[in-house]
Amino acid sequence: AAGTVPRRRPPRSDMGRELTLLLLPLALLAAPARAEGGTAAAEEVKIEVLHLPETCSPKSKKGDLLNAHYDGFLASDGSKFYCSRTQNEGHPKWFVLGVGQVIKGLDIAMMNMCPGEKRKVTIPPSLAYGQQGYAQGKIPPNATLIFEIELYAVNKGPRSVEAFNQIDKDGDKKLSELEISHYLKEEFARDGKKRHPSAHDEILADIFKKNDHDRDGFISAKEYNVYQHDEL
Q1: How far apart are CA 190 and CA 175, in angstroms?
Q2: pLDDT, tens digit, for every residue of 125-179?
Q3: Terminal alpha carbon distance of the chain
Q4: CA distance 19 to 206
Q5: What share of the chain is helix, strand, coil (3-state, %, to 5)?
Q6: Rounded (5°) CA angle 113-117-123
Q7: Mean pLDDT of the chain
Q8: How far apart are CA 194 and CA 62, in angstroms?
Q9: Do residues 37 and 65 touch, judged by C-beta distance below 8 A?
Q10: CATH says 161-220 is which class?
Q11: Which contiguous run of DSSP H or E holds residue 46?
Q12: Which helix (H) or strand (E) holds 148?
């Protein structure tokens, strides 16, 4: 819809959102195509810390699952083009940091941020929507953006080493259909939500469709590890 940060794909169903939190990359906020030109290296994100809590732990890093509210403004005239509090019944947004689910400038701006921290960040066009802009989101070409961000939670992302090892029962560094099936059953039992009987099989098939890139019937550590953790 107009006035929102664009998604890379249409909103997912409830089942799809559950799957997202289990294994697939979150798609709450997607980055546009990268800006053309070679100016990105010369431009930087400007960060102003508005509030820093006394306890600052853990600090956010690449691959972490963050929960935050933020408002987006055009630097040129101060007009607001996005407000997370008006989306999804006002719930804070969940997304994984540093993997391209948000524009490059936000991935940079929210690194080393702690729960409860508030920041005002200025993002140049080359790290936002570039020369093309984003008309549907009311963002003109070559727009410098300002975001006011409040971070609520920093959690280990769905592609963490801990999650992989939890699923990989036999320790062979690859995930079989049986292992993931068992993991899904455990997760479904844990949250207690009612699901259609076909949900398990559909989610399992979708996981392999989107993650088993070499189609060998397993999800390897490399295929699973889209967030480039060094431990796997």
Answers
A1: 21
A2: 999 999 999 988 899 999 999 999 999 999 877 677 777 888 899 999 899 999 9
A3: 39
A4: 9
A5: 30, 20, 50
A6: 65
A7: 79
A8: 33
A9: no
A10: mainly alpha
A11: strand 46-51
A12: strand 145-155
Report pLDDT digits (tens) over 70-124.
999 999 999 999 998 998 788 888 888 887 888 999 999 999 999 999 999 999 9
Distance CA 129, CA 132 (A): 6
**ω into residue 140 within 30 of 0, thus cis?**
no
With tokens 């280990």, the residue in question is: 156
In the chain, where are the structural domains located? 46-156, 161-220
CATH 3.10.50.40 is held by the domain 46-156 = yes
Alpha helices by DSSP H, listed for the chain, are 14-22, 104-109, 161-167, 177-191, 199-211, 221-224
3-state secondary structure of 155: strand
Q: Is the pTM of this model over 0.85?
A: no
DSSP state, residue 3? T
- φ and ψ at residue 126, rounded to 5 degrees: -65, -20
- Pick 185 or 105 by higher pLDDT: 105
Tokens at 126, concatenated: 């080359």
Q: How far is CA 49 from CA 43, 62, 121, 144, 193, in A?
A: 19, 20, 8, 19, 40
Locus of tokens 């006394």:
54
Contact by Cβ (8 Å): 96, 159: yes
CA 60 to chain centre: 13
